[in-house]
Amino acid sequence: MSNTPSNPTSSKNSVVPRIDSVTQIASTKWLALQTIDYTDETGTSRKWDVATRTTKSSSDKADAVVIVPLLRKSGSANLETLLVTQYRPPLGRSTIEFPAGLIDKDESPENAALRELREETGYIGEKCKIIPQVSREVCMSPGLTDESVHCVLVEVDLDNPYNVGTPTPDLDDGEYVTVTRVNLKEGLKKVLDDGEGMPIMGLYLFAMGLDIGMSL
After folding, report:
1. For residue 17, is the peptide bond before it cis, meaning its omega torsion is within 30 degrees of 0?
2. What is the reported pTM?
3. What is the pLDDT of residue 38?
4. DSSP three-state, residue 205
5. Strand order across the beta sheet in which 18-27 lies
């Protein structure tokens, strides 16, 4: 990682707020700590510490995808999704999340979503009959990190022979994931409230929005 700003701007530029420089403080295999020197709206010089992924190839490209699977079977009104539960060392406990993962170099968000869905859950998403819907780039925790993601809506055809029964995930070494199928019409928020794992914020907001939408 260089000391060049992610969004290079001349220090003589009068436009504020602006980033003046980015200095790397420390780095491990996957993460780096940087200090940003920036000028705020009043013209005051300030500093901000930020965590960034060492795998980030460009400030114009999202780091990862978050997948919202929609499971349907012909002739059935049921609409299900997939949740993954896994132990997260930074929290010291398990979390409940949508499937997610990093975007590989030169990989599109659509292909990353289909790959990660298959690897984490074993399910095969549709890419021909119904193309995955990709959101704009969205931030995760902007006070702490520059990480950004695409949310990808993926249809899963339960009539596909590969999706019958309990598909087998293809997990990385050291990755332990429990996959749960949840009926979206029977109270996703209650499932999260009653579960032992801590829900990730995006999933919980999705569940709250679903509840609100169904009550209107």
Report:
1. yes
2. 0.90
3. 98
4. helix
5. 18-27, 31-39, 45-53
